[in-house]
Amino acid sequence: MGKLVLKTAAATVSLIIAFGLILFGIVSLASPSAMMAFADSLAMDGLSAYYSIAIYERTGEISDLAAAVERSYDVEHYSDAAKYGEQLLSDSGFAAYCIERDEDTAGNAGVISSYEQYAAGIVSSAQYHVGEKESALETALDALGQNTFPELNAMYYLSSAATSSGDVAFCREMLSSLEKLTVEDVQEQVLLQEFIMDLQIFCAE
Fold it and tell me: How many whole angstroms separate alpha carbon 190 and alpha carbon 37?
């Protein structure tokens, strides 16, 4: 009798677990936004990042794409950040989205760089971390545009990734590219020279 009770209890628990897993899967597929909110409430940032990608793939909205890139980068899911980041930077609505994001943060002293530079910076860093170093440098340089070196631009993010990895060879590649850069604004010239000097010091150590 005791064995029968134990078997019945075990079967019941198994059914409950199976039902729970099925329900979890259904909700995950049906409402990734609800699952992301649930993961956020439990501080499960990695899981939230995965659901943010699912949300973008369902909506196709650039705001959801940007959120997926940012969340993936923050939890060091660099492969996803690089993959979806490249889509973000090449999206036809990216320029307009950058303007919108910059308007949202206008007047915030804690936000120094433009959204364009921030996005390009985290994407280039992600590319670097997954071994796509040439693409990383190209992404950061493209974000600079012509004859500019704005404050806290994409190069800062990329150099941080490279120096923290002790990658002297890549930093020298960065130097080679930056030394060819002509900047018109006087203040940006100072920023560029200081940036180059810091990289030179790192490479000489």
Answer: 44
Is residue 24, in this structure, part of any structural domain at all? no
Predicted confidence band of residue 15 (pLDDT cuts 50, 70, 90): very low
pLDDT in tens, 71-128: 999 999 999 999 999 999 999 999 999 999 999 887 665 567 899 999 999 999 999 9
| Pair of tokens at residue 23 | 């329900």
In a domain, 19, yes or no: no
Amino acid present at 105: T
CA 146 to chain centre: 24
Quote the domain boundaries for residue 154.
81-204
Number of domains in the chain: 1
CB 165 within 8 A of CB 153: no
Q: Which amino acid type is present at position 199?
A: L
b/e sequence 27-54, b meaning 16+ C-beta within 10 Å:
ebeebbeebbebbeeeeeeebbbbbbbb
What's the rounded Cα separation, in Å, for the pair 128 and 171?
Answer: 12
pTM comes to: 0.83
